[in-house]
Amino acid sequence: MKPSTDTFFIYVRKSTDESNRQVLSIEAQLFELQEFAKRESLTVAHIFQESRTAKAPGRPQFNLMLSEIEKGKAQGILAWHPDRLARNSVDGGRIVYLVDTGKIRDLRFPTFRFEPSAHGKFMLNIAFCQSKYYVDNLSENIKRGIRQKLRNGVWPSKPPVGYLNDRNKHCIVVDPAKASLVRKAFELYATGNYALHEVRARMNEVGFVAFTGKRFSVSNYQNMFKNPFFYGVMDSKGELFEGKHDPIISKRLFDEVQAVMARKSKSKTPALKPYLYRGLFRCGECGCFITTETQKGHNYLHCTKRVKPCTQKYVREESISAQVDRVISKVALEATIADQMFTELVNEREVTAKAEEAAIASTKAAIAATDKQLDLLLDLRLSEQVSEPEYVSKKHILVNRKAQLRGKLESFATNRHNRFEPAIQFVLEAKHASILISEGNPEQKRDFLKKIGSNFQVAEKSLAVELLNPWQFVAEFNSDLAPVIARQGDFREISNWRRGRDSNLSAASKLSRWKTWT
Predict the structure, then answer these.
(1) Which residue intervals of 266-334 are DSSP H helices?
(2) What is the spatial distance between Cα 55 and Cα 60, in angstroms, rounded to a whole number?
(3) What are phi and psi of 482, to 5 degrees?
(4) What is the mean pLDDT of residues 211-218?
C-alpha cells in the first residue's frame, strides 16, 4: 500500500472500565498502533480511547471521533482490528457509509487489510458482521451457562445478604454473621405488628447493614421479603429453580410474611353494609340490580329501578333465604345415595388405576425395547452392515415410535385419576348440601348458591335460578327418584343404580349424563 497523505485518528478501546480486567489492552494497542503509524509514515492528528463495550451504539469517544471526521479534521482511522471500531450493526454501518461518501478515505489495521473499493467494503462488512456474531454468540453462550447453573441449583451471580460465595468450593454458603439477622427481620415482619419502615428501624438498631456497609432502604426490605432464595428456591425471570444452598428461613415463615405483606398492601376503602345478597340478584322485570335496605329492623330487597319504571315490590330477606334453602334442597343428595355413589366411584377408580399401572409398565417396556433397537441399529451402522440411507430411514421410524410412546407415558402421568376426582368431589359436595340446609349459616348457603346456579332473578317476590350442569342433572335425578323411594321405602332397596330398572330408568339415565359433565 502506498504511503498515505491523509490525516488519521487513532482509536483504541477495551470492553470494560474495571481496572482488574483487560489491564494492558489500551496500553498494548496504543503502543502497537503508534509503531505502525511510524512504519507507514502516517500523520496522526489525535488519539481517542475509551473503556466501553461496542456491542451497542452510544460510545461517547467513538461518536466524537466520527463527528470530527465528518467535519473534515481527519480522513482515516487507525485501529488494531475492525472489532475495536464496532461490534454492532449501527456503528459498523456508520463507518461504511462514511467510506461510501468519501468522508473516510482510508482505514488502517495492523491485523486487517482494507482498500476503499467495492471488494474492500465488502470484506469490511464481513469483518463487522463477524464481530457482531462474536458478541451475539457470546451472549447466547453466557445465557445458556446461566440456565444450566440454575438447573443445577447454583445461583449464577452474587447472592443476597445472608449468603457468601465460597470461591474454594465454588458454591454459595450461609453467612454466619448475617443469617440470623435476616431471619430476625422475617420474624419481625411476620408478626404483623411492624410496618416495613419499623422493621428497618429495629434492624438498624442491631447493626444490620449491606455488604458495602450501608443501611438497607425500605425497598430493600420489601425485595428481601419477596425473595424465595432465603427458603432455598431461586427465582429467575418468574421461573423457580430448586437451589442447593442451605435455607435461612422456612417456607412457612416466608408464606406468613407474604400474607402480612398482602394484607398491609390492601387499600383502605370504606366498609359497605354487610347485606347478605348484595350484588347477587337482578330484577326479573327490568334487569336492574336488586338492592337491600333496612326498615324497622328488617332487611328488604327491591329493584333499583334505574333504567325504566318497574312494578316489582319489595320482598323480605327472610323470604328469599327460605327460597334459597329450597333451591339447595333440589341438588342435595341423601346420605345413603351419596355414599353408594362414592363407593362405586372409588372402586371404579381403583380398577382403572390397576389397568393404568399395567399400561404404564407396558409402555416403559416398549420404550426400553426401542432404545435397544436404536443402539443395535447404531452398532450395525458403525460396522457398516447397513447403509447410510437404510440407517436414517429405520432410525426415523424408531425415534418417532419412541416419541409416541413417551407422549403416551406423559398422558398417563397427566390424566391419572383426573376423570374420577371431580366426580368424587362433586358427590361429596352434593351430600354436604343436605347438611348445609340444616346446619349452614346464611353466608355459606349464599356461596353455595353461587356455585350451583347462575342468572339469579327476583320477580313477584320469587327467586328464579338457572342451575348449572351437573347440578341440573342432580335436581332431575332427585325429582325422578322421589316417587321410587316413596314406593320402595329406601334407596338401598333399589337394584344397581348404575343400570336401573324400569322404575328407576329415568334417574339412572340422567346420572350417566351427569357423569359425562363431571
Answers:
(1) 317-331
(2) 14
(3) -55, -50
(4) 86
Which residue, among 159, 183, 186, 184, has the nearest Cα to 171 in the 3D structure? 159
pLDDT, position 272: 63
With H, G, I as helix, E, B as strand and everything else as coil, classify residue 506: helix
How many CA atoms are closer than 13 Å to the CA of 414, on its beta-carbon side? 6
End-to-end CA distance of the chain: 84
The two beta strands, 453-459 and 462-467, are: antiparallel
Closest CA to 230 of 253, 208, 210, 213: 253
**Residue 270's pLDDT band (cuts 50, 70, 90):** low
Residue 404 CB-density burial (10 A; 0-12 exposed, 13-18 middle, 19+ buried)? middle
Alpha-carbon distance of 454 to 464, in angstroms, equals 9
Residues 6+ apart with CB under 8 A from 425: none
Beta carbons of 7 and 75 less than 8 angstroms apart: yes
Q: Distance between CA 355 and CA 94 in Å, rounded? A: 69
The side-by-side arrangement of strands in the sheet containing 43-51 is: 43-51, 7-14, 76-78, 106-108
Kindly list the distances between the CA atom of residue 191 and the CA atoms of 41, 187, 196, 225, 512, in Å, as whole numbers in the listed order.
Answer: 77, 7, 12, 13, 52
C-alpha 166/C-alpha 181 separation (Å) is 20
Residues 6 or more apart whose CB falls under 8 angstroms from that of 512 comprise: 498
Cell of 415: 390424566
Nearest 5°: the CA angle 258, 263, 269 is 155
What is the C-alpha separation between 271 and 425, in angstroms, rounded?
35
Element (H, E) at 255: helix 251-265
Cβ atoms of 265 and 288 within 8 Å: the answer is no
By CB atoms closer than 10 A (0-12, 13-18, 19+), residue 384 is: exposed
Say if residue 57 is preceded by a cis peptide, omega within 30 of 0.
no
pLDDT tens readout for residues 348-399: 888 888 888 888 889 889 999 989 998 998 889 888 898 988 888 888 888 8
pLDDT of residue 507: 45
Q: Give alpha helix (H) positions in 104-239.
A: 118-151, 179-190, 196-205, 218-226
